[in-house]
Amino acid sequence: MTPDQDALIRQAADLEDTTVTAFVLDTVTSRAKRVVKQHQDLVLSNEAFDAFIAELDRPAKPAPELVELFKKNPKLREG
What we know:
Blueprint: H1 3-15, H2 20-40, H3 46-57, H4 64-72
């Protein structure tokens, strides 16, 4: 950390009437939550959403690999 960064962080912590550690943890935690949320949320245009829903509404096609797996392992069907 540069001296200027240190001074700025200390000044901000003082203005918030908190410790540098608490200020840094609060700031980093807030940023981390935003980053995680941005990577969790899926935002689609109306057109893309409509296409997505249309795909979900289509009947499923059997996957040959799964059909073969269930033929070889009938116990997988139970449960």
